[in-house]
Structure formats: C-alpha cells, structure tokens
C-alpha cells in the first residue's frame, strides 16, 4: 500500500484548520441579507414608497411584479427598473377585489414561476373630521387598507402553501396605526387593523414556514403625502421638531427594512411591527427641551 508522504508529513490539526478556513470563507461570502432571486410582488408599486421598494429589490436581483389601480403609474416604473437591469412586470389591480388579488399572484407565477415575498404597500386616506366623514368615505379607506391587505395576504399564502416553500409577507402600516390620528380616523383605524392582522396571520401561517411582519413608518417625504401630512409650513416645522433625529424619512428608509425582513437575516422574525419614525418626541417634551 502506497502512503501519501505529504499527507503523512502534515502536522496534526492542519487539515482541520484548513477546513475551518474554508468554512469561514464560505460564511463570509454568504450574504444573509440577500434578496437575489426572491420573486416579489409590491402593491402600490407605481408611486412613492412602492417605487423605492420595487427598485431596491430589483437592483438586488429580485424579480419584481408591481401592482396598482393605475397603469399609467406602473408603466414608467417598470421601464425604469428594466433600464437599471432589473426584472420587472406590472399588473393592474383593485385590492378591494379578492378575485383580482388572486389573479395578481397568478400573474407573478406566470412570469417568474414562483412567489417568495408579498409586500402590501397599497393605501388610501381621507383627511376630514369624523363628524363630516361619510359612510362611503369610511368604507372606501378601510376596504383599501385593511380588506386589501387581507385579500393579498390570503392569495400569497395560498401560493406559498402550494409551493411548500414558505415565504415572507410584509405589511405597511403607519405610526397612525400605532398612536392613532385625530385628523385621519379611517386611515388610523385601518392601519391599526393591519398590525393586528399581521400578528394573527403570523400565528396562523407560521406552521407553513410563512413569516408575516409589519412596518409602521412615521412622516416620510413623498409627493403624494406631503400636502396631506403637512398642509402648511407651521405644521411641517412642528412635525419636524417632533422627530428625534431631526429629519423626515425618505422612501429608502422604508425600502431597506423591507429588504431585511424579506431576507434570511430575518428568518426567525414573525409577527413583529417595526416602527421607523426617526424617534418620536411627545409635544410636552418638545416644549421642555426647547425645540
């Protein structure tokens, strides 16, 4: 029998050290925050925060389907993402229609063959006192924000279960859903419902490997929201003083936590609500701190 003299001459423990070095190299190369290849559906994907979420996922290698009620909003977003080298398709959907939500998931499967991430970013609001709010106004906001999140989540969960792969659902709520809002009542109530829907679905669907989490952003600078959130300079400055970090959020400030929650790095996080608001200072404290 021939003996490998090089192997015989190798000091004891060298082979183990080499294998450990290779393992460390592998772990260093493995990016647990990656969303590459994760097929992602983003509702409200034609405006504001939705554009940023779709873009940030796509440039990181995630095939993306963006959806909203307005094709004119979706088309330029889809085209811009494709110019950046990302994979992006679009689908026109009214999230208040459960059958349309099912079709939206079917469209993602027809293009990409599977589903990995569902991001419920759609939303609607009305700024008016409760005593002036019509029944139709109330129902419209709740239907978009709460019913729509339920219908989209249900459609996605069915696909995850059919695939036997698990998946990630990320719901967009709001700090209005955490603290309430005296100027946007149906919005605050429905977004609070989204938080509890998140917790409930996390418990119900965890056995299938489905993680359900929620992000509750504070004041974020977007074209559509600015006039509604701060209708004049006085309100804007007052809200700015209430941010501990001294600035409003950006759309990317919301998109990046979505990437984290969709990634392997968040594999043991479910049923959580992540508040991202720059730190909240209560009104009395603003006065006490001389802000």
Characterize the structure shown:
This protein is α/β, with parallel strands linked by helices and 291 residues long. It has one domain: Rossmann fold (3-Layer(aba) Sandwich), CATH 3.40.50.720. Helices cover 51% and strands 12% of the residues. Strands 3-2-1-4-5-6-7 form a 7-stranded parallel β-sheet, with helices on both faces. It starts with a helix and ends with a helix.
Task: Give the gist of this structure.
This protein has 291 residues and is an alpha/beta fold.
SSE map:
Blueprint: H1 5-9, H2 14-29, E1 40-43, H3 48-58, E2 64-68, H4 71-83, E3 88-92, H5 98-112, E4 117-120, H6 135-163, E5 167-172, H7 175-179, H8 185-205, E6 210-217, H9 223-229, H10 233-241, H11 251-262, E7 273-276, H12 283-288
Structure class = alpha/beta
Work out the helicity level. 40-55%
Number of helices: 12
The number of strands is 7
Cα distance spanning the termini: 84 Å
The CATH superfamily is known as NAD(P)-binding Rossmann-like Domain
Low-confidence stretches: 1-9
In the CATH hierarchy, the architecture is 3-Layer(aba) Sandwich
Report the biggest beta sheet as strand number plus sense, adding barrel if it closes.
Answer: 7 strands, parallel
């Amino acid at each position: 029998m021939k003996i490998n003299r090089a192997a015989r001459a190798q000091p004891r423990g060298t082979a183990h050290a080499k294998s450990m070095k290779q393992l460390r190299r592998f772990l260093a190369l493995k990016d647990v925050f990656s969303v590459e290849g994760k097929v992602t559906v983003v509702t409200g994907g034609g405006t504001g925060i939705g554009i940023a979420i779709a873009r940030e996922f796509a440039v990181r290698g995630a095939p993306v389907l963006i959806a909203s009620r307005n094709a004119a909003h979706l088309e330029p977003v889809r085209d811009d993402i494709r110019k950046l080298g990302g994979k992006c398709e679009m689908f026109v959907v009214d999230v208040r229609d459960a059958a349309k939500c099912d079709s939206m998931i079917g469209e993602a499967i027809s293009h990409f063959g599977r589903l990995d991430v569902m991001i419920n970013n759609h939303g609607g609001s009305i700024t008016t006192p409760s005593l002036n709010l019509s029944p139709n106004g109330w129902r419209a906001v709740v239907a978009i924000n709460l019913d729509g999140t339920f219908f989209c989540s249900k459609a996605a969960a069915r696909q995850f279960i059919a695939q036997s792969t698990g998946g990630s659902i990320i719901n967009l709520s709001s700090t209005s859903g955490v603290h309430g809002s005296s100027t946007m009542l149906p919005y605050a109530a429905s977004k609070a419902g989204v938080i509890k829907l998140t917790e409930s679905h996390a418990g119900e669907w965890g056995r299938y490997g489905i993680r359900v989490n929620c992000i509750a952003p504070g004041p974020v600078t977007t074209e559509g929201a600015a006039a509604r959130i701060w209708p004049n300079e006085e309100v804007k400055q007052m809200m700015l003083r209430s941010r501990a970090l001294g600035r409003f959020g950006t759309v990317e400030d919301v998109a990046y936590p979505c990437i984290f929650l969709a990634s392997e790095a968040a594999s043991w996080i479910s049923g959580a609500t992540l508040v991202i608001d720059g730190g909240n200072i209560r009104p009395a404290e603003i006065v006490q701190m001389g802000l």
